[in-house]
Design goal:
Elements lengths: L1 H27 L4 H27 L3 E8 L12 E10 L3 E4 L7 E9 L5 E5 L1 E6 L4 E5 L22 E6 L7 E12 L13 E4 L11 E3 L5 E8 L7 E5 H14 L9 E5 L2 H7 L7 E6 L4 H5 L6 E5 L2 E2 L3 H11 L4 E8 L2 E8 L28 E2 L21
Antiparallel strand pairs: 1-2, 1-4, 2-3, 3-7, 4-5, 6-7, 8-9, 8-11, 9-10, 10-13, 11-12, 12-13, 12-20, 14-15, 15-16, 16-17, 16-18, 18-19
Length: 405
């Protein structure tokens, strides 16, 4: 579709330049500059399309299809266990696979389909090494008799709005489907698929993402993974969401070592410095985030942090948004000490806090899952685009919970 639009523009340019070219050539007796421009444009378009095709062809063998069989309590009307579909990517040649946690949620059996060297599907049972609901990532392992092709995990910082990306996955069970588009936006923090609470910082793309795509790679023009397909707005077209691969890279060591993510916690709630918050706390020119709650006996409380303090920095990094601070604290891990740069009124402070594990009585609750929506609306929140289970493709948001770092 994108190529079609470009070719249409080139055809029009070709027509205009051809109509105007003879007179110029007759007067100057040389080559027609319009023709040279058209040929250069056509060559550029062909090269761009060829690059995307090469990325897709090279990456296909490292993208897997995932089929799950749900627990017997999730049987359909006929009494058969429900099945789910999703995607994943091989990140280590010895069979480690990255996917979305909601793809395998509630699964009793997980089957991975890998392309053989001759291009035929090979199926392997998979075990769950670790999973994390808040970032919606899971690490799986299969035992294959050969070294498997892998994809390189890069960074979402490698692409900007308007850059081309390729998405590969298993939408509706259509294995190894390839779509292409551009990055539409970055840093979407107000997107909560199915009301799920989590550490999300979405990249928006206009490449098609559908149920079954979740867990599949979003690739840049070099064939490196910059994000993982995760959600889709079912009422819109060309509105898909992916989680930056940087988040996956931060949680993968935890998943492999502990089977879960051990998040750093300091026992506070924070808010962005919106006009309402600034007025409520009587702040003057704040630069950072405001502490709205300090939990008794927590690390921050013991360090002397107070409600109304403005956190301006964490270690050497500036703090500008609440969701960024929550992720920075969580990703530091348990046992790490951090230094907060704080302003209390006109007084600057530095507080050293040793991060702890989240107490079980304050751990995040399970995500809220919405049922099927009777009718979708363009303003509704997107649904997760991965398991292919009834209700998820038509899900809508049902609330948003802000976690404490």
């Amino acid at each position: 579709m994108i190529g079609g639009r470009w070719w249409g523009s080139v055809s029009l340019a070709t027509l205009l330049c051809t109509l105007g070219a003879p007179a110029w050539g007759a007067r100057h007796g040389g080559e027609q500059p319009g023709r040279l421009w058209v040929e250069a444009t056509q060559r550029s378009v062909r090269e761009q399309r060829s690059a995307l095709s090469q990325v897709a062809q090279a990456s296909l063998p490292a993208v897997v299809s995932i089929t799950t069989r749900q627990a017997s309590t999730s049987a359909d009307a006929g009494g058969e266990p429900q099945k789910g579909i999703g995607s994943g990517l091989i990140i280590r040649s010895d069979g480690y696979i990255l996917t979305s946690a909601h793809v395998i949620e509630g699964a009793e059996d997980i089957t991975i389909s890998v392309l053989s060297e001759s291009g035929y599907p090979e199926e392997y049972p998979a075990e769950v090494v670790g999973e994390d609901e808040r970032t919606d990532f899971a690490l799986l392992k299969i035992n294959a008799p050969r070294k498997l092709p892998v994809l390189k995990l890069s960074s979402a910082s490698r692409v900007e709005v308007g850059d081309f990306v390729v998405v590969i996955g298993n939408p509706f069970g259509l294995t190894h489907s390839v779509t292409a588009g551009v990055v539409s936006a970055k840093g979407r923090t107000d997107v909560t698929p199915n009301g799920r609470d989590g550490d999300f910082d979405y990249m928006q793309v206009d490449a098609s993402i559908n149920p079954g795509n979740s867990g599949g790679p979003v690739l840049d023009v070099h064939g490196d993974v910059v994000a993982i397909a995760n959600a889709v707005n079912v009422a819109g077209q060309g509105i898909g969401f992916a989680i930056p691969v940087d988040i996956a890279k931060a949680v993968l060591p935890h998943l492999q070592k502990y089977g879960r993510v051990r998040r750093g916690w300091m026992g506070v709630s924070v808010q962005d410095c919106s006009p309402d918050v600034i007025e409520a706390y009587g702040l003057a020119n704040p630069k950072g985030v405001v502490v709205s709650e300090v939990m008794d006996g927590g690390p921050a409380s013991r360090a002397g942090l107070q409600v109304g303090d403005v956190i301006e920095g964490l270690d050497s990094a500036r703090v500008e948004r609440a969701h960024k601070l929550r992720w920075q604290v969580a990703s530091r891990g348990v046992g790490r000490s951090v230094v907060l740069r704080v302003r209390r009124g006109e007084r600057p402070l530095k507080l050293k806090i040793k991060l702890e594990d989240i107490p079980s009585d304050t751990a995040p609750v399970a995500p809220i899952l919405a049922g099927p929506a009777p009718a979708a609306h363009p303003d509704e929140e997107p649904a997760t685009g991965g398991s292919g289970l009834p209700g998820e493709a038509d899900g809508q948001a049902s609330g948003k919970r802000v976690p404490s770092p």
